[in-house]
Specification:
The protein is of the alpha/beta class and about 400 residues long. The chain folds into three domains: about 140 residues, Globins (Globin-like, Orthogonal Bundle), CATH 1.10.490.10; about 100 residues, Beta Barrel (Elongation Factor Tu (Ef-tu), domain 3), CATH 2.40.30.10; about 130 residues, Rossmann fold (3-Layer(aba) Sandwich). Helix content is about 40%, strand content about 20%. The chain has twelve helices and twelve strands. The protein has a six-stranded antiparallel beta sheet, with helices on one face. Strands 10-9-8-7-11-12 form a six-stranded parallel beta sheet, sandwiched between helices. A hairpin with a 4-residue loop joins strand 1 and strand 2. Helix 1 packs across helix 7, helix 5 packs across helix 7 and helix 6 runs antiparallel to helix 7. The radius of gyration is 22 Å and the shape is globular.
Amino acid sequence: MTPVLTADQISRVKATAPVFAQHGTTITKHFYRRMFANRPELRNLFNQTHQASGSQADTLARAVYAYAANIDNLGALGAAVGRITHKHASLNIRPEHYPIVGEHLLASVVEVLGDAVDAETLEAWRLAYAQLAQLMIGVEAKLYEQAAWSGYRPFIVARKEVESDEITSFYLTPADGAAACGYEPGQFVTVKRYVGELGVDQPRQYSLSDAPNGQHLRISVKREGGNEQIPPGRLSTLLHDGVEEGAIVEVTAPMGDFRLDRTKTTPVVLVSGGVGITPMVSMLSTLIADGSTRRVAFVHACRNGRVHAFKTWLGEAVACHPNVTRAVFYEELEATDREGVDYDYEGRIDFARLADQAVLPDADYYLCGPLAFMQAQRDALVARGVDASRIHSEVFGSGALE
């Protein structure tokens, strides 16, 4: 039964929202340390790179703050709950995990804030957490019911194809020989591999980068980091260097509420930065496979031709389908990059230069890329009169669009 908070308890939780705005990250960092010390097996469920950087603690702190601030209007959290529950279901988070998290989160509040939180406020938070847990569990139960399979399933790497200097595609087929499942363009899967240097399994979520075809699931993985500023991505490096054709990987069923609305006939504008191109490739490939005549503007930004994945595919899609246009921006041109062939504009995406092609009053806009990139594109579109309700985005890792 879902707990019901009294008016006084709701007021107590809401009143503590500023506390989480000020001390939330301190509490959540303490929480993760505490939980992993007591339940080390749960490290398998969490991205340890995000743990090390502190970004996961920051994200949790913001989520707790948002919940406390909206405890009397949970409907305002609908979009956030939808995104989080899809991520949870893809990571195979189950009802039995919630009491563990609640125990260590509330204990962390007490251990960090001490006498600043009284018994009545702590009890209000206990009930509020139980309420939130029941809400999430209920939504996730429906996602599990609708999923193509439960938990992790073995897939064979049937093919491995280099798309650019940084991105490689993996074609995955079910190890049991069954057909590949359907999904909605824009959705993602979780891939899990054991990382020896950490001593734990590590999950990572990757957008599907092809149209549903019943033959394979394709993910296209960027090799992360590996320079002085950013250390090598543990799982991306493992996939690039240690997973060859014929290898087995564990995969969860497709999830995600960032998806192309295939029921509409109005224009579509697909806006991506870097590896954010992957769900856009799925969306455009699906529209082409469906025989759609919808107007599509494919807007992409990357550094140069060396890192421009799916360059040939995009050129062919535009050449063969008059309803599809492209606007490719290169920020760091190289001598071999050809204007009008490899790219269309130098610099960063500028919708002022695309007013007739990609700023369309009845279009839906789909954004994927680094958080700062998506925020900039969203702001630019809104400034040019695009209704925010028509702008859809996918966020991996930490953070959310404001």
